[in-house]
Amino acid sequence: MKKKNIEAITIRHYRIRKKVIGTKERPRISLYRGLKNLHAQLIDDKNNKIILSISTGADDFKKQLRYGGNVKAAISLGQMLAKKAKEAGIEKAVFDRGGYLYHGRIKAFADAARKEGLIF
What we know:
The chain is of the alpha+beta class and 120 residues long. It is 42% helix and 19% strand. Strand 1 and strand 2 form a beta hairpin. The radius of gyration is 14 Å and the shape is globular. The protein starts with a helix and ends in a 5-residue tail after the last helix.
């Protein structure tokens, strides 16, 4: 990535984080988009705790799909996160796209999580 792109992502991320705050009842879904994997966490910002963490690089995910850096993997990860959140008793969340533009893998992840019943 060029330096300008990284700076733009960082600026957008800080701007989003000023407004998006997670609580125990409505945690923040934080995404990190790497080249080969996608990582998602449910975070309670009030108590500074990670409620749930999931990644396309995890062993249980690798059994389903070999590669974790595409839209197909993002859809599967969104579905998994929504199911695990429901098991933990979480039905609502706030979405922190991590400064990334809302398209491609980020949009696919969000749409899949919404389709599984997670509200944000």
